[in-house]
Amino acid sequence: MNKPYETIRTETVGRVGVIHLSRARKLNAINGQMMQEATEALRAYSIDPAIGAIVLAAEGRAFSAGFDLKELAEQHLTTAEQWGEVLRADFDFVMQFWDCPKPTVSAIHGHCIGGGMELAVSCDLTIADADTLMGEPEMKFGSSIAALVLPWLIGPKQAKELLLTASDRVTAQRAYELGLVNEVTHGGTHLQRALEVAQAMAGYSAMSVQMTKKAINRSLDIAGMRQALLAAIDTATLIEANVRPENVEFERIRSTEGMQAALAWRDAKAKP
Question: Are strands 53-58 and 16-21 parallel, antiparallel or unpaired?
């Protein structure tokens, strides 16, 4: 399955299906079209008996700058119902890589922040190039987290450190030490290594691999992960639907001076 898309590119390497995020000029910001196309590709690979594992990678100088803030602002969302629909769609997009019956491996590099980071770490394994910078800067402008998976992956103390400080410069090595990344590579070999890992898993018994993944995920659901994540969406909806001075100013700067100016204002505001 190598169907032509506009925001992603797909290829098959042996028994591995590869999805490349392909909005390089926008730092692979995740917009509605990318969500639709990546979902279609993931579903196709999920039901293809010739595919044993799936790799998620990205083109250009960044894995992903997160959800497309410009597209989001242009929707002019005002009500809790509107925000709830958007946040649930974002959540479902991220978590489908976690829920995919086949093993998923993310190969990340450059900036991997916000929704991009949630997407990367929701894959079963994550291989990061040493140049990777991760983080969730949402607190800097009073926003929320679409898929609050960090407490379940690295524990509450570390999740609070990353989320409440809104750091977006967490190095690959630090992410490895926290348990967000399985392996750090050098010299741009992250995709090659991800393919090696994925090929290995694809070569084993499909039933054994898939049922073991399902059992691991189910153990977390029994512990309450799914209910907690869904409850977090309700909290995120309340945050987003509540008019905040930070967001009003961010949107004013974005609409009059552009997104780069708005991001610069956000970052400057967070400095001591």
Answer: parallel
